[in-house]
Each structure stands twice: as structure tokens, then as C-alpha cells.
Write a structure and sequence with these properties.
It is a single chain. By secondary structure, the chain is of the alpha+beta class. It contains twelve helices and ten strands. The strands form two sheets. A seven-stranded mixed β-sheet has the order 1-5-6-10-9-8-7, with helices on both faces. The protein has a three-stranded antiparallel β-sheet with strand order 2-4-3. α1 runs parallel beside α5. The chain binds 3,4-dihydroxyphenylalanine. 3,4-dihydroxyphenylalanine (DAH) binds next to α8, β9 and β10.
Length: about 350
């Protein structure tokens, strides 16, 4: 039996030596170490041998097994290295090929618009500031000449925060306009002031094609000695010229906002019909885009600025409508539905 083991060993090793690829190597362990191999058969039959023979044959058979297993490992390593070296030689790497494009996202159309607007005002000497979205009643209303029970409160469907003070009032809300930041700036900054205040605002409203409970606004404020109506008109006219194009007509009309006196609204010539009248502009030829005016003396005074020394103008506009007008988007909800097919277009 020892002789038989010796033979198994030498044929197996001889055969192993002749193998020249990993593929060929696959069947070798099946043949010499597998369940049906001669060696396994001998190992299994050990218990049938007389005791003294069992010891010798058993020890030798195990030695052969270990020897074959080690030889297999070595051979496999040698073959793998050889194949790797061969494939490296075969592959020519062309380092002049351009790299594969790496997919990157881009800014949301509303953010793009916001940045563009801020850039225009920054180039005119304004500074960009931000304020809190959860706001005190005071800055959103009171400081802006909208006391409790004032009818102007009803025009803004407010989302109140569920917290009460000792008098049972709810003094906090999700700001309904970015004009709340104007109230804060008047209180904290010293003139000369030139700021724009972009951000999210909230109204307690169901969404439809033209409304969402959250949308974007930007307010602006300038406080200095000798600011007049001519400055509001000049600044906003320049903004409209840069944002909508040089030849776009602009119209100013009187309007009412409690925190400005006088108050005005600015409209631009309709982007679709250029003034002729169409569905988009309700046949008027004009599209209203912002409210503005001379900051009310009481608002300045409440914030600690003397209206006898300083005058000020303010303006505020919705952002979402601007890309809608520019790209002809007819449903505001598309901006907030995260549909990548829509967003990729900008
Ligand atoms: N806050 C007003 C709104 O949401 C817009 C506005 C009008 C802002 C006139 C102003 C302003 O700063 O002067 O409807």
C-alpha cells in the first residue's frame, strides 16, 4: 500500500508540473485530492487495516496529502503571477484618452435666480444678509406698522407656531415675508445701509399651479441721508434692465404697503406679448413683479433711527415667478417636486 501511495504521489506531482494554466489546474485537485480520488479511498479504508499497518500507512498517506495540497498552492501562485504578468504586457494603456465624464449636479433654478439677483445688487453696493425663518410676531408685523387686528394681517395667511406666552398670545410664526429681516436690520445696523435679504417665506395655503405654502422672496433696504424716491426708481429700473434685458419697459404705479409711504409697485412689459396683451398678463400687457416704497418714518423710528436725519427705501419681490416667466413654466409645484427630468433642463 505504501508503494501505491508513492506512485500516486509521483504521478500527481508529475502531472502538476506539466500544467500550464489556471484553467487546466481546476481538475487536478478533483482527481488527486477529491472524494473519489485514490488517496481519499486509501484514507477511508484505513480502519479496515490491521493495527500496525494502519499506523504506517495512515501516517504516510497524510504526509502525501499535505505534500499534494502544498504543491497545489505553490503551483497556483506561480500560474497566477505568470498570467498577471502576461496580461499586463498585453494591455496598452492610452494615457491620452479623455477621462470618463463624472456626473455632477447643478444648482436648482430658484437658487440660480437668487444668486443672479444677489449678484446684480451686490454690484450696486448692496450686501447680502439673512434672517430667521421662524420669526417673532414683532418683526414680521408689529415693527412694520401691522399691529394686532390690522386688516393687512388678513392678507397673509400666517402659519403660527404652537407656543403661547403668559398672556395667551402666540408670538411666533413662520415668517410670511422677508420684510421681517428689514425690521431687524433697521434695529441692528447703522446707516449707511444697503442690504438685500433673500430667503424662504411661508403662507398657510393649499398648493396649486401658482401657490405653494413655502416660496422664496428677496427684500432690499437702503438707509442713508438724503435718499429719495428717485433712488428707488433708479435702483429698481437698473435691476430690471440687467435681469430682464436692456429694452424691457418698466412701469411704476402707486400701491399700499403699511411699512412704506409712499408705496409703489413695479411691473415689466409682458415677456410673451411685449405689451400687446395675452393670457399670461391677463391682457394688460404688464406683469407686476415687486412692491417698494419709502420706508415709513415710524418703522425707522421704532428701530432706533431718526427719520429727521435718515430716509430710506425698501422693496420686496417673489423669486419663484421670475424663472417661471423666463422659461415659460406654468406650474410652480414643479420647482419643489424634485423631479430630476424637470431640474436637468436648467
Ligand atoms: N412684503 C411684501 C409682500 O410680501 C412685499 C414688499 C412690498 C416688500 C413693499 C417691501 C416693500 O420691502 O417696500 O407682499
Amino acid at each position: 500500500m505504501l508503494k501505491q501511495l508513492e506512485e500516486i504521489k509521483s504521478t500527481a506531482l508529475q502531472e502538476l508540473e506539466d500544467i500550464s494554466s489556471i484553467k487546466e489546474l481546476k481538475s487536478w485537485p478533483v482527481r488527486y485530492l477529491g472524494k473519489k480520488s485514490e488517496l481519499t479511498k486509501i484514507l477511508r479504508s484505513l480502519s479496515t487495516l490491521p493495527l500496525n499497518e494502519r499506523k504506517n500507512v495512515g501516517a504516510y498517506a497524510n504526509k502525501v496529502k499535505v505534500n499534494l495540497e502544498n504543491s497545489l498552492d505553490q503551483k497556483e501562485q506561480v500560474l497566477r503571477e505568470a498570467e498577471l504578468a502576461a496580461s499586463a504586457k498585453r494591455k496598452v494603456i492610452d494615457i491620452t484618452l479623455p477621462s470618463r465624464p463624472f456626473p455632477t449636479g447643478h444648482l436648482h433654478p430658484i437658487t440660480q435666480t437668487l444668486y443672479e439677483i444677489c449678484d446684480i445688487f451686490v454690484s450696486m453696493g448692496f450686501q447680502v444678509v439673512e434672517g430667521p425663518e421662524v420669526e417673532w410676531d414683532y418683526y414680521n408685523f408689529e415693527a412694520l406698522n401691522i399691529p394686532k387686528e390690522h386688516p393687512a394681517r388678513d392678507t397673509m395667511s400666517t402659519s403660527w407656531i404652537d407656543c403661547e406666552n403668559e398672556s395667551g398670545e402666540r408670538p411666533m410664526l413662520l415668517r410670511t415675508h422677508t420684510t421681517s429681516v428689514t425690521a431687524r436690520i433697521i434695529e441692528t445696523m447703522q446707516p449707511p445701509i444697503r442690504v438685500v435679504e433673500p430667503g424662504k417665506v411661508y403662507r398657510y395655503e393649499a398648493s396649486d399651479a401658482t401657490h405653494t405654502p413655502m416660496f422664496y422672496q428677496i427684500d432690499g433696504l437702503a438707509v442713508d441721508k438724503g435718499i429719495t424716491m428717485a433712488d428707488v426708481k433708479g435702483t429698481l429700473y437698473e435691476f430690471a434692465r440687467r435681469f430682464f434685458g436692456e429694452d424691457r419697459k418698466v412701469r411704476f404705479r402707486c400701491d399700499y404697503f403699511p411699512f412704506v409711504e409712499p408705496g409703489i409697485e413695479m411691473a415689466i412689459e409682458c415677456l410673451v406679448c411685449r405689451g400687446a396683451g395675452c393670457r399670461l398678463c391677463g391682457n394688460s400687457g404688464w406683469i407686476e413683479i415687486l412692491g417698494a416704497g419709502m420706508t415709513h418714518p415710524q418703522v425707522l423710528e421704532r428701530g432706533g433711527l431718526d427719520p429727521e436725519i435718515y430716509t430710506s427705501f425698501a422693496f420686496g419681490m417673489g423669486i419663484d415667478r421670475l424663472p417661471m416667466l423666463r422659461y415659460g413654466i406654468d406650474d410652480i409645484r414643479l420647482f419643489y417636486s424634485s423631479d430630476i427630468r424637470f431640474l436637468r433642463q436648467f
